[in-house]
Amino acid sequence: MSINKIKDVGAYVLGDIFIKGVPLYLVYFLSQHLSSGELGVIAKYLALFNFFVSVGSFGQTSVCNVYFFKKDLQTIHLSTSIMTALFSFIIIYTLISFISINYSTAAFFASVGWLSTNVLLLYWNSNKEIKSNIFYEGSQSALILLFTLLFFFYVSNDGGSRIVVHSTVMFSFGLLSFYVLFKFQGLRLDYNVTLAAKQLKTGMAVSFCSLANWVIFFGDKFVIEFLYSDSIMGSYFVLQQYLYIYVVGALAVNKSLRPYLYSALESGALKQVFSATVLYVSLILLGSIMSLFLYQEVVLVYFLEESYDVFSFRMAILILVGYFLFSLTFWIHQILIYFDLKRSMYLMYSISLLVFSFISIFMYLFTINIEYFPILTILGFSASCCYGVFISVKVIKERLYRV
After folding, report:
1. Three-state SS annotation for 255-304
2. Could you read off the pLDDT of 258-300 as tens digits, one per residue?
3. Which of 29, 233, 333, 358 has the fewest CB atoms within 10 Å, measured from its CB?
4. Is 344 within 8 Å of 336 (Cβ atoms)?
5. What is the pTM of this model?
């Protein structure tokens, strides 16, 4: 089992580094050709897109994820979750389109494509079909790179090219994913209102957690924009993107170990739950150390220009600490979803939002140095992580010791 875990982790990490390395190259390319203000525009679009997929889906992708591991669920559970998320996207789009019709429309179509693609990837992940998972997602990422470069050089050399290409490719792959799910995985357009209401109760809790994560992950950028400028916010966004490769690796580790975690929880194997958790924490801790080394020896030397000197090395360390705590919280979050602990999820992320809001107000009132802004993320995820560890250990001991 341990050898299989290591093999899966290695495959997913290498695959995801390649897949997410493409957007990282795009960040470098765009930072060389666009102003910080234009990069800020892209950051706003990505924030809106992430709002759709993390909050607007009402947590239905997490419900779908659990479906692939629960032995007593039928196909209608999956189709109901997908259709509920689609209805939610339409409602959210209608409500926020007045903010910016162009950005909202692009984010809407990208999120619809993300939904079906993510469900298909979750299915392959649950069956440990690693090659299919990596090839499909890698093809999507490579096409985004290719068409962004072509669009940038031959159509429009501004931030809009990145937005148009991202939305179009995401939606196109979404249509293909729907076809695969219907044709080969037996998905049908079934919808059960009673079941949808039950799933929404769980989904609302997950969606609230996603909203909290969205606020903590993207809220610091809006605070910086408010206190400083679009230009500073755009530069901060670039710095975070270079360090985000750590989150990519952590999520890849999470994705590779998630089937073992859920299978262990399903069978009541306490030792396997513990071993998967220890392995996960060890790997993300090792990854944070490696990321810091790569940042110091590679990014600072070859990628960042002098204009980014406003951000210190200490700031990079703080950002990575925040990312580590997010990765740990995300693991705990999946345990709470599995056991359908809605109240605990609400409390866990309410605490993090309160801490984030309080620190934001404090920074606004006392004009804290910009290099300490990652503390917003650190304290926000620290609060939720502490509570989450307490609850998850408690529920695992109560439920699995009886098995």
Report:
1. HHHHHHHHHHHHHCCHHHHHHHHHHHHHHHHHHHHHHHHHHHHHHHHHHC
2. 888 888 887 778 888 888 889 889 988 988 888 888 777 777 6
3. 358
4. yes
5. 0.69
